[in-house]
Amino acid sequence: MAKVKVHVFLKPGVLDVQGKAVEGALQGLGWPGVANARVGKLIEFDLDGAEDPQGEAKKMCEQLLANTVIESYRIEIA
Are 6 and 77 in contact (CB under 8 A)? Predict the structure, then answer.
């Protein structure tokens, strides 16, 4: 069984409204050095019965987990 982590984040150049809100809030709370905050998502799951967990996770990202027009992803297999 493979432990899979998929990190999904907006591509550079795509406006990240949540990231801007987090950045503004952190600056307002006294961390003026915070810049370029980006918010993404982490999807974790167990994958059983796959000979190529990396390849299967990539297929999942391309079909469902990431909107590849505006998002990138990174897969970790443990």
Answer: no
CA–CA dist 74, 57 (Å, integer): 10
Cα–Cα dist 41/50, whole Å: 24
Contact, 48 vs 65, CB < 8 A? no
Q: Please give the Cα distance from 70 to 33 (Å, whole number).
A: 27
Output the tens digit of pLDDT for each of the chain's 78 residues: 999 999 999 999 999 999 999 999 999 999 999 999 999 999 999 999 999 999 999 999 999 999 999 999 999 999
pTM higher than 0.90 for the full model?
no
C-alpha torsion angle, residues 9, 10, 12, 17 (rounded to 10) = -120
Query: Are residues 7 and 66 in contact, defined by beta-carbon separation less than 8 angstroms?
Result: no
